[in-house]
Write a structure and sequence with these properties.
By secondary structure, the protein is an alpha+beta fold. It holds the Pfam family Rv2466c-like.
């Protein structure tokens, strides 16, 4: 069984967030080296119209921009402090979003408006012993070429028509999958059962896809009022 995984992520994706917390749990129980790689949905979805998604929420494009901004800061921090900071920054930035209190109002739009809010990333950088000025990278484009290279690499490994998360086993040449898409974090033996099942499918010769479009919304503090309800959000 592979003991090395690359996890392609965007902090603004709720499905990615839940899956990432599951992978962290697996890493506590198995000898698993996880390498975290930024994958901005704002770039991954280039060429895909946001018009349909605006019908769900006008804040959809801005939420993906927030994800890109956080990933630019993560890339800037990685450039000066090395890849070891990436997972910690993902965790802390993700907590800024997904541990927010559930907003008032019905449906997904109030949640999306919170997702689309700009956040002060400097305190997180300071807490991790990093230069808070790295937060200025959020609005720059100097690091976008490297982020775009991550997008191209994720597509090379997993194909098109994918989102986050992407799990890449035994990278760079092992199998990669988009998903699993789950609505809550399994712990203990449940986490390991799901890991073993996912790994089995990923490494099965010729396996390509197992999918259903019906899904329920992830369970986080921010999404508590809509968690487990049926959604078409991607």
């Amino acid at each position: 069984m592979s003991d090395e995984l690359e996890f392609f992520f965007d902090p603004i994706c709720p499905f990615c967030w839940v899956t990432s917390r599951w992978v962290v749990e697996v890493g506590r129980r198995r000898e698993l080296a996880v390498h975290w790689r930024p994958l901005p949905l704002a770039m991954l979805n280039e060429g895909i119209s946001y018009e349909e998604r605006r019908k769900v929420s006008e804040s959809y494009p801005d939420s993906h921009l927030r994800g890109l901004e956080m990933l630019r800061v993560i890339a800037a921090a990685e450039a000066v402090a090395g890849p070891g900071v990436v997972g910690d920054l993902y965790t802390r930035f993700g907590e800024l979003v997904w541990d927010s209190p559930a907003p008032d109002g019905e449906g997904f739009d109030p949640v999306m408006r919170v997702m689309a809010q700009q956040r002060d990333l400097r305190p997180v950088l300071e807490d991790l012993g990093l230069d808070p000025a790295l937060a200025d990278a959020a609005t720059g484009t100097d690091l976008d070429e490297g982020l775009a290279a991550n997008v191209a690499e994720a597509r090379r490994r997993c194909g098109d028509d994918v989102g986050t998360p992407i799990l890449s086993f035994s990278p760079p040449d092992g199998p990669a999958l988009f998903g699993p898409v789950i609505d809550s974090v399994p712990f203990g033996e449940d986490a390991l059962r799901l890991w073993d099942a996912t790994y089995t499918l990923a490494t099965w010769p010729g396996f390509a896809e197992l999918k259903r479009s019906l899904r329920s919304f992830p369970d986080t503090p921010l999404t508590a009022r809509i968690a487990h309800g049926e959604t078409t959000v991607r």
